[in-house]
Amino acid sequence: MIAVLLSACSPSGETDPVHLLSGEIIEVDADAGKLLVEHGDIPGLLEAGATAFRVSRGDLANAKAGQRVRARVVESGGEKRLEQIWPDDRLSRGIIDQTTLALRQDTMTRGSRAFREVGEEAPAFALFNQDGEVVRINRYRGKALVVNFIYTRCPVPHMCPAATMRMAQLQEEARDAGIEDFELISITLDPDFDTPGVLREYADRYDIDTENFSFLTGPQNAINDLMAQMGIIIEGDVSNHTLGTALIDPAGTIRHRVFGSNWMVSDFLERLKALQEEPT
């Protein structure tokens, strides 16, 4: 178990300590909203041992006894809490790291042709979903997939919030139309903030049915390469970004793409219907 002490600037400009923790969840206390975590020594804050930390609703819902996590420890009002909680088991880390490296190499190999046109195969990835589970692109093989990019702190109503509402509407209308074997995913543009627990709360806030609509996050390098290959651009701060929505067929080929947040639900609905009617 490890712990690292860093520093960060507070809104006032002062430097506050940032304590990073790696440990194992011993107990989930849903009633108290706390996790009991066994951890190593955190210099200047905690000795090695088990500590009860308050966590957010999303992180609490994702937590399981015996799970290894890494997080940031924050002191507030005399209470210690965990923020930015990530799964940290060896298997998940290995899958994510290996796939992220392969994606990085693929982007570099493609060079100026990193952007994938309609008709090309969608890029491979492995990311965490809103439940903290590792999700790989091959999970969607055999299903139509609609994918876009958002971030949970987006303050512009006609950007990410509008895109999320359109995805939710598409999910509902596709089901009503009897379309089967389709999935929707929204990949965060802001993985430093949008951990699995944050994405879970975001889905809850929009009353999203996550049975076939997932929100994904992971290493910044993986997100950067996916944006490059799918044509999403950030200029400076994450708030200054483009949007794009793509339809990927059951074989993994990009069949349709629209940039911006004002895409038509009816357009993607008709294309999903057409894909379902194609011979397998």
Total E-strand runs: 13
Q: What count of domains describes the coordinates?
A: 2
**Fraction of helical residues:** 25-40%
Per DSSP, the total helix count is 6
Shape estimate: globular
CATH topology of the largest domain: Glutaredoxin
Averaged pLDDT, please? 90
Low-pLDDT stretches: 1-15
The CATH architecture of the largest domain would be 3-Layer(aba) Sandwich
Order of helices and strands: EEEEHEEHEEEHEHEHEEH
CATH uppermost class of the largest domain:
Alpha Beta
Strand composition percent: 25-35%
End-to-end Cα distance, whole Å, is 50 Å
Largest sheet entry? 6 strands, antiparallel
Would you kindly provide a written description of the structure presented here, covering whatever features stand out?
Helices cover 28% and strands 31% of the residues. It is built from six helices and 13 strands. The chain has helices at residues 57-62, 90-110, 160-176, 196-205, 220-230, 265-277; strands at residues 3-9, 15-29, 34-39, 49-54, 68-76, 79-87, 126-128, 134-136, 144-150, 182-188, 213-216, 244-248, 254-259. The strands form three sheets. Strands 1, 2, 3, 4, 5 and 6 form a six-stranded antiparallel beta sheet that branches. The protein has a five-stranded mixed beta sheet with strand order 11-10-9-12-13, sandwiched between helices. The chain starts with a strand and ends with a helix.
List the helices and strands and how they pair.
Elements: E1 3-9, E2 15-29, E3 34-39, E4 49-54, H1 57-62, E5 68-76, E6 79-87, H2 90-110, E7 126-128, E8 134-136, E9 144-150, H3 160-176, E10 182-188, H4 196-205, E11 213-216, H5 220-230, E12 244-248, E13 254-259, H6 265-277
Parallel strand pairs: 9-10, 10-11
Antiparallel strand pairs: 1-2, 2-3, 2-5, 3-4, 5-6, 7-8, 9-12, 12-13
Helix pairs in contact: 2-5, 3-6
